Amino acid sequence: MAPPQKVVVVGGGPVGALSALYAARRGYAVELYELRDDPNYGSQSARPDIAVIPLALSERGIRAIAEAGVPGLLDRILDNSRPIDTRMIHTRDAHGNIKNIPMVYGPQGQVNNLRCF
């Protein structure tokens, strides 16, 4: 039997990791590469003053994780997240005062799930 074909995924964020998972489930040998170290720590940290990364997961992302076919994966993610039904748009009015405008995610009451890492 021939060895499995190799798939290389560049980018270890949510989409890259899920893509690697899908390829592995289809029988490919997967190599996953990420340029940066843990984004919470080190000199390349996006926010060196904090050690939290908020990550919003849409309904489309939830479906993709569910369809990956890993038992318990989606449950573990959702158990450690909280639903959010609006996002806040921050802007300034004509006088320079900050305005916060809430916007719902979807007309049918869709929610995103927020997880902080």
Task: Give a topology summary.
Blueprint: E1 6-10, H1 14-25, E2 29-33, E3 54-57, H2 59-67, H3 73-79, E4 82-84, E5 86-92, E6 98-104, E7 112-116
Parallel strand pairs: 1-2
Antiparallel strand pairs: 3-7, 4-7, 5-6
Please give a structural write-up.
It is a single chain. The chain is α+β, with helices and mostly antiparallel strands. The protein is 24% helix and 31% strand. The strands form 3 sheets. It has a 3-stranded antiparallel β-sheet. Strands 1-2 form a two-stranded parallel sheet. A hairpin with a 5-residue loop joins strand 5 and strand 6. The radius of gyration is 19 Å and the shape is elongated.
Q: Which band does the percent of strand residues land in?
A: 25-35%
Low-confidence parts lasting 5 or more residues at pLDDT below 50? none
Radius of gyration: 19 Å
Mean pLDDT level: 82
The arrangement of helices and strands along the chain is EHEEHHEEEE
The biggest sheet amounts to: 3 strands, antiparallel
The SS-based structural class is alpha+beta
Helicity level, as a percent range? 10-25%
Lateral arrangement of strands in the main beta sheet: 3-7-4
End-to-end separation in angstroms reads: 42 Å
- Tertiary shape: elongated
> Number of helix segments?
3
For the secondary structure, the number of strands is: 7
Domain FAD dependent oxidoreductase: 6-46
Keywords: FAD, Flavoprotein, Oxidoreductase
Protein name: FAD dependent oxidoreductase domain-containing protein
Cofactor: FAD
What's the quick description here?
This protein has 117 residues and is of the alpha+beta class.
